[in-house]
Amino acid sequence: MVLTRPDFRLDTPNKLSHVTDAEWWMWLRLNELEPTTKLGGIYANKSGFHNTGNANEARWPGNYSIRINRNRRGPWWRNYASALDWTFPDAQRGDYKRISKYTSRLMKSALDANDPRLDMILFEFYGQSDTDKQVEGY
After folding, report:
1. Contact in structure between 109 and 115 (CB atoms under 8 Å)
2. HEC profile for 25-43?
3. Do 127 and 102 form a contact (C-beta atoms < 8 A)?
4. H/E element, 60
């Protein structure tokens, strides 16, 4: 599927609880890009970005995912998850070539003060940007 602009009016499967159509749209695009990758998860009933703001406030009020004001804005933060785990089965087997391609791009953009692409859409990321066993992130 090629779109000139994102169409977030998708039917998220079974209207997945706490998953926005935009999050599902992003997963579909990532899976088109790398069809053998897996969705590691979006919503999970645990503390942090994989849960809703309401759940974090009620159960884990000091959690870092809701501590910073910019993570408490927008119409979605209270009722939807704010994380997406993109899983690379080849990386799980120790082959980091593909995952490092994408993590390196994210890292380069995050560290470049003149590159605003991630500034308003990504709070953090973790991945493998080289061939060692240590996870990198920003």
Report:
1. yes
2. HHHHHHHHHCCCCEEEECC
3. yes
4. none
The sign of the dihedral angle between the CA atoms of 66, 121, 137, 93 is positive
Q: DSSP character for 110?
A: H
- Name the H helices within the chain: 21-33, 53-59, 64-67, 89-92, 97-111
Per-residue pLDDT tens for 49-97? Answer: 999 999 999 999 999 999 988 888 888 889 999 999 999 999 999 999 9
User: In what helix (H) or strand (E) does residue 87 lie, and over which residues does it extend?
Assistant: strand 85-87
> What residues form DSSP beta bridges with 38?
87
Q: Are strands 126-127 and 85-87 parallel, antiparallel or unpaired?
A: unpaired
CA distances from 119 to 16, 111, 138 (A): 27, 11, 12
**What is the C-alpha separation between 35 and 29, in angstroms, rounded?**
10
d(CA 18, CA 52): 7
Q: Classify residue 128 by its DSSP letter.
A: -
Would you say the C-alpha torsion 113, 118, 124, 128 has a positive or negative sign? negative
pTM of the model: 0.84
| Residue 120 to residues 1, 22, 104, 110, 112, Cα–Cα distance (Å) | 25, 15, 19, 11, 14
